[in-house]
Design goal:
Layout: E1 10-17, H1 20-29, H2 40-45, H3 57-62, H4 68-75, E2 82-91, E3 100-113, E4 118-128, E5 134-144
Antiparallel strand pairs: 1-3, 2-5, 3-4, 4-5
Length: 145
């Protein structure tokens, strides 16, 4: 069983620039057909200040600042037995190309199922922009089988 005393443990805070090239690439890679995600003129015509961040792009950014090797060592988990269980997003405000987002992540839960055959770790990340505005909350679960 993973140590439940790790619940609440901070996993770090970091900031990242939201670059329009990365937004365009992600939008195309995920099949976003709406031109507001790739064409600045279309985004502005739709009332956005710049290219908006496509849904789920926060998951990519949130993963950049967490030291996965240290996290797995702390949990005493084996990389070969880990699966991504789920993710969810609660959006509070739009994020755009040119924003600087800050991610603050912590372990929010640790539990098991099937008599310990499956161990879960849930991490939650609060995302704010350069103005301190609350952009979103990202929740991600990993499972060790």
């Amino acid at each position: 069983m993973t140590d439940k005393s790790l619940i609440g443990h901070p996993l770090g805070t970091f900031s990242v620039d939201v670059e329009k090239g990365r937004l365009r690439f992600f939008a195309k890679a995920t099949g976003q057909n709406d031109p507001i995600y790739t064409d600045e003129a279309a985004a502005k015509a739709a009332g956005h200040k710049a290219l908006p961040m496509p849904p789920t792009f926060l998951f990519c950014l949130a993963g950049e600042g967490v030291d996965r090797v240290s996290l797995l060592k702390m949990l005493n988990w084996d990389l070969g037995r880990i699966l991504h269980a789920e993710q969810s997003f609660t959006y509070h405000k739009m994020a755009y190309a040119g924003d600087v987002l800050t991610f603050e992540t912590r372990i929010s839960d640790i539990y098991e199922k099937k008599g310990g055959a499956l161990q879960f770790m849930v991490q939650e990340t609060r995302v704010t922009n350069q103005d301190g505005e609350h952009i979103a909350d990202v929740r991600c679960s990993l499972v060790q089988r």
